[in-house]
Amino acid sequence: MYFCACQNQYAMQPIITLISDWRTRDPYVAMFKGALLSAIPDAQIIDISHTVDLYNLNQTAFLTKQSYQKFPEGSVHILLTNVSANASFSPVVVEYDHHYFIGEDNGIFCLMFNMNFPVKGRQYVENEINSVDKIIQLAEAVCSRRVDSVTIEYSQFKRLFAPMPIHFSSERTIEGEIVYIDGYFNAVTNIPTEMFKEAVQNGPFQAFISSKKEWKCQIYHESYVSEEEFYLTSNALGCIEIAMYQTKVSILADFSVGDKVTVKY
C-alpha cells in the first residue's frame, strides 16, 4: 500500500484544515464544512484562511507550507483555492512529511513542494460528481484508510513558475519578496527569520523594498520599537515581515505582493 494510515495513527480524531479564496461573506465555506462533517462526523475542521487573494496559488502554497507543521502528524490539509466546480477535474492527495494534502492539480502541488524530489500522489477516480464533492469523498477515504481502493497512482503534476526563491549572494545580500499582506496590513516576506538572524547576527543591515518607490529599513526587533519608522520583525509564520507600530504599513508605503526585498548586511 502506498499510503500509510492517516487517521489516528497519530490523533484520536481526524484533523482537517481548510484554505481557500472563497471568503466568508457567502455560505460556501459553511456548506463545504457541513458536507465534510456529513462524510466524516468526528472530524475536527480548522480554518487556515479563506481570504487568500482570488486564484492566488502562490499565496495558498506559502501559507500552507508555513503553517502545516503546527498540526499533528496525520492531519489532512485541503487546498481549495481556484478549484473548478465541474466534473472534468479529479483531486489528488499527496503524502508528505507525515501529512496529507488534497487538492485539484492546478499547479498547487508544484508550488507546495517545488518538485525538488519525485513527488508521488494518488488521484480520485470517480467521474460522475463535481470536483468539490470528489474532494470531500477523497478526504473521507484518506481518513478511513481506504484511499488506495478509490484512487490511482498520479505523478504527472502540473508545473507552474514559483515565486522568486530566496537568494544568498557573495556580496552579503539576501534577496526575497513580499508574498502576503496580512490582516494588519503588514507585509510578509518569504525570507525565513532564522536565515535573516544567521546572516545578520545582530549586526547592522539595510533592507530595501522596491515598491512604486524604494523604501529603506534598518531596524529589526521582535516587537514594537518605533512609532515613526518601518522595522523588520519575525511573525508566527516563521518569516520576516515589514511592520510599523499601529500603522497599516502596506497601505502607507503602497507595498504589494511581488515587491522585491533586498537585505544587505
Description:
- With 265 residues, the protein is of the alpha+beta class.
- The protein contains seven helices and 15 strands.
- The strands form two sheets. Strands 8, 9, 10, 11, 12, 13, 14 and 15 form an eight-stranded antiparallel β-sheet that branches. The chain has a seven-stranded mixed β-sheet with strand order 2-1-3-5-4-6-7.
- Helix 1 runs parallel beside helix 4.
- The longest helix has 13 residues.
- It is elongated and about 60 Å long.
- About 2% of the residues have low confidence.
Q: Main traits of this protein?
A:
single chain, eight-stranded antiparallel β-sheet, 15 strands, 265 residues, alpha+beta, seven-stranded mixed β-sheet
